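Hi support team,

I've been running sequence recovery on a batch of backbones for a student project. Most finish fine, but this one hangs at about 90% for roughly twenty minutes before it completes. I'm not sure whether the input is malformed or the queue is just slow. I've pasted the structure tokens below so you can try to reproduce it. Let me know if you need the job ID as well.

Thanks,
M.K.
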């Protein structure tokens, strides 16, 4: 296989790694925010919960930036098509996330219960909405996005905001939120005590089982969903030109890769095993073990989607032959090679720093501790 084709596959895998990092780390913080009013039944408990993720939430946004940057640099055609066609959804995502830092910084500046209650609901919105949008975006990729290109590769989106939140996309969004609640619950168990710990344990168990139920329903749905199949000869090392291929829309096509390569069934199996053992582990109070199992559940879930769709990355429902794939939507060979070099240097640094930060700022956070700390949220 030529170097250019290998680099495309490598960056397809790296994009998946970055999206998994985003889902695990950012999703954990979003899950805590979305369930803040459940974890904490009074102001002191809510402040304690916020300070559990206070040292980490802004650093975890690095994964969000890395994911967007990787799409921009490695898959520019996908970046341009998605970020222009799905512009309103991107604004919804960003507006909801903007509330997040404001909530952390301003919530405790005023002692008014009304003031703090408003920011609590703002943190709920900034936690729940991004995870629903994240899952809905994946659901839309499986269904196909209504876009097409002109001869000069100008992209046109022909759908609407409402169509992006169709029943299947909403199901995927709810599953994404459920996994985020599971991950957030394990974090609160790691750093909480007493009633907060017990509420987190219950929510973690139930959100994991709900996520698994939604994953199962989604799997049966995808098995009967119209998928995409390339019917023409494709050069994996060819130029980034998505206009020169033929694509057929076939019911159940997203299951073809699993039929051709049965080993891929290990990916959805990983989700089932991770969630079930994770729920059992949380029941026993093993929150750290449960956290890692939640990360494995995200790997299994996103890996299942990637395996089903390969080599498609952004199928077009309005003009299937112009769907974007691993082979025809990447940057040049030189760009991918240079980026790989920088990724080899900086991704381990980010992982090392993140691990060090969690180790240094480990320990329990209680309402009493927060009340006596002038620098606490």
């Amino acid at each position: 296989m030529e170097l250019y084709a290998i680099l495309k596959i490598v960056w397809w895998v790296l994009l998946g790694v970055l999206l998994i990092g985003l889902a695990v780390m950012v999703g954990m913080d979003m899950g805590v925010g979305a369930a803040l009013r459940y974890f904490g039944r009074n102001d002191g408990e809510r402040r304690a919960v916020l300070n559990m993720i206070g040292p980490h939430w802004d650093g975890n946004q690095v994964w969000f930036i890395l994911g967007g940057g990787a799409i921009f640099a490695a898959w520019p055609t996908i970046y341009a098509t998605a970020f222009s066609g799905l512009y309103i959804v991107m604004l919804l995502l960003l507006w909801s996330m903007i509330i997040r830092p404001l909530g952390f910084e301003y919530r405790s500046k005023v002692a008014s219960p009304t003031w703090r209650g408003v920011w609590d609901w703002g943190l709920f919105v900034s936690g729940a909405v991004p995870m629903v949008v994240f899952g809905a975006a994946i659901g839309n990729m499986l269904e196909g996005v209504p876009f097409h290109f002109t001869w000069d590769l100008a992209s046109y989106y022909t759908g609407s905001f409402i169509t992006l939140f169709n029943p299947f996309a909403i199901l995927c969004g709810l599953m994404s939120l459920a996994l985020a609640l599971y991950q957030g619950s394990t974090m609160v168990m790691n750093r909480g005590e007493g009633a907060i710990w017990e509420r987190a344990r219950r929510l973690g168990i139930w959100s994991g089982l709900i996520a698994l139920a939604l994953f199962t329903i989604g799997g049966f749905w995808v098995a009967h969903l119209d998928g995409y199949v390339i019917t023409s000869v494709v050069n994996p090392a060819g130029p980034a030109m998505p206009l020169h291929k033929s694509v057929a829309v076939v019911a159940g096509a997203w299951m073809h890769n699993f039929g051709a390569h049965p080993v891929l069934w290990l990916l959805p199996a990983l989700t089932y095993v991770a969630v079930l053992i994770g729920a059992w582990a949380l029941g026993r109070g093993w929150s750290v073990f449960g956290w890692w199992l939640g990360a494995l559940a995200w790997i299994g879930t996103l890996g299942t989607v990637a395996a089903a769709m390969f080599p498609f990355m952004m199928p077009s429902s309005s003009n299937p032959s112009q769907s974007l794939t691993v082979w025809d939507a990447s940057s040049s060979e030189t760009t991918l090679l240079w980026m790989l070099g920088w990724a080899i240097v900086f991704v381990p640094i980010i992982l090392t720093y993140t691990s060090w930060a969690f180790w240094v700022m480990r320990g329990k956070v209680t309402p009493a501790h927060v009340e006596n700390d002038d620098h606490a949220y």
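--
Follow-up from support: It reproduced on our side and the slowdown came from queue contention, not your input. The chain has 16 helices and six strands. No action needed from you.
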